[in-house]
Amino acid sequence: MSDTTGGTGGTGGTGRTGRTGRTGGTGRRAYEGRSITVTFEAGRCRHAAECVRGLPEVFDTARRPWIRPDAADAGTVAEVVRRCPSGALRYERADEGEGRASPPPTGAADPE
Questions:
Q1: b/e map 61-84, b = 16+ CB within 10 Å
Q2: What is the DSSP letter of 4?
Q3: Is there a cis peptide before residue 65, judged by omega within 30 degrees of 0?
Q4: DSSP 53-72
Q5: Average per-residue pLDDT in the chain?
Q6: What is the pTM of this model?
């Protein structure tokens, strides 16, 4: 998984360790499922709760681990992760690669 957050400092690692709920150099935690891995960066979270409201069977702060990617199909999990307004949540599909949590800012140049 490539690090697309920019400005994370540290060693430039992705934060993915291959183990559920573990952190890497960027402070992100990876929660691996069969078809999708969801990463969470607590320092970016603004507690809008889009994830919890959108898919409570996957995102449940009362449970540990609080993210269980296999509790819903990967497409639905990805859809809810993309709603995260802060970008604290990201995903990587086993079949498609990394997904961004939110669209680029309005007016951002499209890559060619």
A1: eeeeebbbbebbebeebbebbbeb
A2: -
A3: yes
A4: HH-TTTB-TTSSSSB-GGGS
A5: 76
A6: 0.66
